[in-house]
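Changelog note: in this version the structure field was regenerated for every chain. One regenerated record is shown below for reference.
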Amino acid sequence: MKTHLHFFIFGLALLGCEPSEPSTSSDSSDPATGTGETETETDPANSTGDMPTTSAPTTGTTTDEPTGTGTDGETELPDESDTDETTGGDEPMCGDGIVDEGEACDDGILADDGPCVMGCHLNVCGDGYVHAGVEVCDAGEQNGIYGGSCSEECTTENIPHCGDGILQEGYETCEEGEQNGDGVTCDPNHCQWGNSRYIFISSATFRGNLESNLIEDGETTGVKRADDLCQILAISGGLPGSYYAWLSDNNGNEISDVAARMGGGEDGADVVYVMPKGGVVIANGWDELVSDGPAEPIIRTESGGLLNDLPVRVWTNTAMDGTSLGQSACNNWTSADGFGFTGSTTVGSAWTSLEPFLCVKTTVHLYCIQGKKEN
């Protein structure tokens, strides 16, 4: 009896030593509770007995990430102004006060009359900018031209002109006080032998109907009004002779073409057309004027002054030979409606025949030429 009892007790002990099945409820986080706490796990690679590694807390921050947050909780990016030199910073630009590669200067001002002008270029003589306190004038590419307004040194002295005592070849045939073999005295106004005539651009500008306070409205109209305007301007500038506008209409009568009104080539081959003050030759004779156009742009007014903001438009409706283009002419220069054909203060055919322009525009000039016929 005792023997059976011992075997029974020994069997129970053996049953208590067998391993149990893995339990599916051994996870530390219960799905029902949703605590989501992270369980500490042993790192399989850690065979040295060191402390086991743990996953990083989800609420922590690292030192290599932006730490600022916006009002909506989103991470803010660092301000570009805080970017150090290694990240590039702002792009270089003219006017920032720093002389960058490719810039001759940069004072952060870029004034037209200062030492540094637009484009970060040094203000030098010949660039068209007058350097205050350094240059008296600066006409750019026009510096030093015959009869100009500014010398090559950007002063108003030593500008080549008629009467300076120096024969300027290509512009003058004689100097003041000289006489040729025929006893003809050099014209002191033009520094030319023989008969010379003035040609200028009006200082005043007009609409296509030629309205102007220089003449009472209704007194004259059309090309006759234009001729009167040229005569009035010439007298105001102290110029001698009779003047005509280089202007044609489409009436088809004897005064429609400016060549007919002026007498055309009746003057002969010895006439030299020049601009007032300075004696710049525009053409050696009528034939040269109507075949080649002006040798230089007509940019001096009745007083001899130079126009600014060139080139400018000029009412013409006239072909190279002095005859009408037969194009729109602001109702024969009596209306500010429609279109009128213009020229431009250039050389070549564009001096007289460029393109149409609105008659209502007030910024258009007239060419005025001294002619043979009397008004």
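Spot check on this record: The two ends are 167 Å apart (CA to CA). The helical segments are 2-16, 222-236, 258-262, 286-292, 330-333.
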